[in-house]
Specification:
With about 280 residues, this protein is α/β, with parallel strands linked by helices. It has helices at about 15-30, 60-65, 70-85, 85-95, 110-115, 120-130, 150-170, 185-190, 200-210, 215-225, 240-255, 270-280; strands at about 5-10, 35-40, 50-55, 100-105, 130-140, 175-180, 235. The chain has a seven-stranded parallel sheet, with helices on both faces. It starts with a strand and ends with a helix.
Amino acid sequence: MGKYAQLVIGPAGSGKSTYVEHLHQHCQAIQRSIHCVNLDPAAEAFAYPVSIDIRDLVSLEDVMAELQLGPNGGLLYCMEYLEDNLEEWLGQELEGYGEEDYLVFDCPGQIELYSHVGAIRSLVDFLRADGWTVAAVFALDVAFVSEPSKFIAGAMQATAAMALAAMVKLELPHINLLTKMDLAEDKAAVQEFLIPDPQLLMDSLSASTGPRFRRLNAAVAGLLDEYSLVSFVPLDITDEDSIGEVLLQIDMAIQYGEDAEVKIREFEGQEGQGGDDDAGLD
């Protein structure tokens, strides 16, 4: 059937760990096995069972204390240390996983890890070489897309810093996840931003900004239209159907289960009934 993985990325506070928690609960309910992997060396507690934990290799607290680094510098050191130990540490951790296993990697929230540092790309290359099919799941808070100006800011964050990095640098199937829909004050108003119409965005931006921004608005809308870079799948963690739809979209992106063998169930007396039909034709 194959080995599959999600790489859950996005800004700090965007709901990545909450998504992993509720995805795990949903998969338990539908009797589908997944394994959660923590790649955040600064994590302190989890609401889901952790099968593999980077803190067994290196922790941000220890790095900051021993090397006198700040949080950002310490995190970069941790991820580079992970990169240097992929074969020795992660390779050993993955030895117990094989066909039909599904991993979900809960990643740190620092944007530069995906746009400027090579550790995550090295992780992707390592997983692919080991036979894993991987998708990038970018989580963005719905508060960023409540109106056209915020959508453009959030969308450009998604495309420039994350989606383009995932598509071009990481070279992965990519799903943009709009999180915290359960907290949205006006869910209907968000619908127009899931698959945005660039022309409507440009008109709304032009109406709310000065004339000097008109060319900039047109350029941004044209970018989204020409490359079709940004669309979102909404996630409401209080709605099981919403979680199921997100999982379906990701499964389609990585072609989960498409190579599984079709199992034909044999019914009792099937062969005898077939023989009688053949005899009747004679």
